[in-house]
Amino acid sequence: GAGVSQSPSNKVTEKGKDVELRCDPISGHTALYWYRQSLGQGLEFLIYFQGNSAPDKSGLPSDRFSAERTGGSVSTLTIQRTQQEDSAVYLCASSPRGGAVVYGYTFGSGTRLTVV
Amino acid sequence: KNQVEQSPQSLIILEGKNCTLQCNYTVSPFSNLRWYKQDTGRGPVSLTIMTFSENTKSNGRYTATLDADTKQSSLHITASQLSDSASYICVVSSTDSWGKLQFGAGTQVVVTP
User: Fold this and answer.
1) Do B100 and A59 touch (CB under 8 A)?
2) Distance, in angstroms, between A18 CA and closest chain B CA?
3) How far is CA A8 from CA A12, A36, A40, in A?
4) What are B14-59's pLDDT values in tens digits?
5) Can you tell me whether residue A101 is helix, strand or coil?
6) Residues in CB range of B41: below 8 A, 6 or more apart
7) What phi, psi does B25 have (nearest 5°)?
8) A79 neighbors B16 (Cβ within 8 angstroms)
9) Taking the mean position of all CA atoms in its chain, how far away is CA B102?
């Protein structure tokens, strides 16, 4: 596609339920990132995939969070046993290579997650 | 402590007026600094990117400056338009880490008629 696509755009879930957020990066982009943006806060790094390398998971806030990237393309961020503090906008970004420092990101429009 | 601080937190300006947003950072070693515009309900869109050797970069009515010595950047919006209403985010990257960009909390700009 022409841009980074995220789905769903909005998700309301009950506390304790599991949710899956999807990201379709730009075709050919080998690097994919997940960020979280809480109300009034800056973007918080969650996880980084680069090609077939082991992902950098150092930003995941707890073991309830996990992500995978299948076939080097689509990525799914899973949050288990959701808590109210998980409510945020989850943004996905991709870049042509691991060099986001040089090439820059393209962000998706995000998934707004509300845990009630 | 956040390594990227932005000010003001929010700003209301009249259509046609100019404004300047500030970004101070402590990220080191410095690689580059970007300004993003984020419309409500949308992902951030890059406006400018500056490396250590660049001290000014323009994109239409947006002009960013960088002082790598004082670790300060500004984003100047000239002749503001209603469509400039958005959050403006300063993002700083380090040569040490590819994915862990440091994001400021953003400045919310509201342009009124």
Assistant:
1) yes
2) 23
3) 10, 15, 22
4) 999 999 999 999 988 888 898 999 887 677 788 998 888 899 999 9
5) helix
6) A109, A110, A112
7) -135, 160
8) no
9) 12
- Nearest residue to B6 via CA among B110, B107, B108: B107
**Measured distance CA(A82)–CA(A57) in Å, rounded:** 19
CB pair distance less than 8 Å for B99 and A48? yes
CA distance B55 to chain A (A): 17
Instruction: Locate B105 and state its tokens.
Output: 């909390």
Per-residue pLDDT tens listing for chain A (116 residues): 578 999 999 999 999 999 999 999 998 888 888 999 887 666 788 998 888 888 888 889 999 999 999 887 999 999 999 999 999 999 998 887 654 444 567 888 899 999 99
Query: Does residue B4 contact residue B89 with C-beta atoms inside 8 Å?
Result: no
Note whether A101 contacts B46, CB cutoff 8 Å.
Answer: no
User: What distance in Å separates the CA atoms of residue B92 and residue B111, rounded to the nearest whole number?
Assistant: 26
Given a contact cutoff of 8 angstroms between Cβ atoms, the answer to whether A107 and B45 are in contact is yes
Q: Which amino acid is at B52?
A: F
